[in-house]
Structures are given as structure tokens and as C-alpha cells.
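I am still learning, so would you mind making up any protein sequence you like and the C-alpha cells describing how it folds?
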Amino acid sequence: MGRTKRKRLKKYEQNSINLCYEEHLVSLQKWMSNKGWKNHKKLSLKLFPETGRGISSKITVGANEVLLSIPMNIMITYTTVKLDIPVKNIFTIHESLALFLIKEKEKGINSYWRDYINSLPEKLPPLTWLANEEEIESFPSDIKLNVEYTTTNFKNFLNKIRDFIPNNSTLADSLLKWAYVMVNTRAVYVDPHIICEESSLNLLKDEPSMALCPFLDMFNHNYLSNTEVSIINEGRCLFYELRTLSSCKKYEQIFISYGNHDNVKLLTEYGFFLPDNCYDNIKFTLDEVLKILKFNLDNNKYKFIKEHDLHNNLYIGYDGVSYNLKAVLFIGWCGVINRLDSIIFSSNYPSLFLEKKLPDLIKGLLVIKKNEFTNDLRQIMSGRIVTESAQMVLEFVKFRIDFISEVILEYR
């Protein structure tokens, strides 16, 4: 299924405001330059009207050129924080990086990392879990699940600090939350086996696969971004390298991709969503599908679905119905068939199913889900919206209704 209207990356954004002369950014770039970073592509920070802070270049950058090469000795990695890990096998890499930020922020001007820390925003993004309890209660169920998951992780972090960090009463809740969010929204992936030796991996509860990277964390996300990262070794020094695979005109905003995330992931993890996100979709559980379409599966069909993991990844997106959902819809619709696997795994579905029944089944699911989204909107609008987080959820729910309405039109 094609997207009726698909926006593309803006090739040029007018009315952007140059931020490269702000004191904290000048200090950051000077500090990075002293540590071996060279701004070959003349990258600069700007305030763009649609995305806020973002990065552009003062020169045209060709395809397959290196945009940014950051010496890893000015990245905050496991190697940086391992001596500050208070106890073995308790803290995750996320939590360890957050603790390190807190420690260095409290040092103020005496911190080696002060220029980087001063470049981080004080204001937190409108993450869903930062809304107040009354607002969260009115959120859609899938968003509430994400809120509960993140809130539980943050509370576990606070409990660990209480149990294992001496003099923890001096740490303000706002500082703990700030550090936790900064790592969650700005850290990049690194190969843990490049960062440290195998013998030192047991200091953490998980693998040291996250790091904080100065300047790189100022790039905004777009799913159309065509970049790649790698860690290279030059003269016994490691560099975190960002390369663009397509050309970028001077002064246009340069984006990176945070991953192939749908809008629920972007909203809950980063505090924004993209109205034209090609990875967005409408999700269903197996129980929802069976209930909405009134399918009565016998034991053999139900067992087949479970054994072949067809009950997961049930969704309808811009490109149509997922492989698993199509299989489940066929299994629910068809009568007694001896060899389901020969049809499903070869995608040899009968034309009657593909041309007549499948569109009707999909539309039936979408209409019910649209009603659910409409009820979500009524629910959140019936309460008092105070925080930016709740306002963002409200805008997302409105978008969801528009999105599913557009998808439904594909099955008229």
C-alpha cells in the first residue's frame, strides 16, 4: 500500500537562527578541538522552525563523505565511568552513565566534562512518563504500558541509589531525573567489545553498549536519513565516525536516524512523533483480532499460530498488512486445511482470499481500532491538560485518527 501523501526531507529550511556563537557551544567546540576534533565539514548549530535545534553545514557535503569524526577519548563510555561504578552487577550502563553525569554536574567548573555538560539542555523533552498521574490515567492503553515500564525502571534506579550510594540524600530528584533522561534520549550505540575487554564486562548488569557523544547528540532524527556510523582506528586512537551516504546542500538541516522506530516509540522514548513516519503502523494483539472478527479457532489452528510465532507483529502500516497478520487472517477465515504451512510459508494464498476477503477483514479491524482511537481522544480531552507531555500525547492521538482514516481509504 502506497502512502497517499509522503513528505520528504526539506532540502532547505528558511528562517533558521544561527546558534553557533552561543557561549556554551563556542566553549564546547573549543574544548573538543583541543582534544583532537576537527570540524572539517563546517558544521554549525541552528534553530530551525520545525525541529528546534539542529545541525547544518556551511558547505555542500558530497555522498559517502565523513560528516563527523569524534575522538572516543572525549566520549563518555564505559571506559570513562567504570571506576565510578559503586558496586558490581547492580547498575546498568544507562544508570552508570546517568550517575556519572550527576557527579560531574555537581563538580561545576571543576569538572573535566563541564563544557559538554553545559551544552546539554536543562529543560527535559515532553516524554510521556513525565506527565502527572491524573494525565497519565487518561492516556491510551499502549502508551500507559510504556509509561509504566519507564517509570518502573526509573524507580528501580532511585532504589539502587538509596541502597548503594552513600550520602544519596543530597541528590535532588530533579537532578536524578535530568541525568536519566539525558542518557535515555541522547546516548548512542557502541560495540561493547570495542569499548572494553571481555574480562571487565561483569561490572555491569548489562552490556556497556551506550555512550554519550558530544556534538553528535545535537543532530535531529528523520527516518529518511541516509547515514551510517562506525568506529575506526587511526594511529592507535579510536574515532566515532558519522558518514553521510547521500549529498547535503549547504545550510540545509542534516539528520541522522535514531533507528527504525514507529511513532509510539519516538513519542515515549524521545518526546516527539513524525506525522509521515514510514515505520508507523496500527498494532493488534491476537486476542483483539479474534474478538473483532469473531474467529473461533480450533486447537490445531491455535497451536499452529503459536508454534510458528505468528501471534506477534500483527499490524497494518503504510505498506499494507504484516506477514503474520495476513497469515492469522487466512487461518481464521479458511475452513479445514491439512497443510497450512504449504500455503502460508510460500505465500500461495487463494485469489478469493487475497482479492475479496482480506480487504474486508482488514477494514473491519481498522474501523474498530479507529473507534478505539476516537474514544482515546474523548478520554484525554475530558481531563485537565497541564504538562507539555500530556499536550504532546493529545496531538499524537489526533494524528492517530487522521492516520488510520487515511489507511482505511486504501481499503474502500
The chain has two domains: 72-270, 281-409. Residues 1-13 have pLDDT under 50 and may be disordered. DSSP finds 15 helices and 13 strands in the chain. The two ends are 13 Å apart (CA to CA).
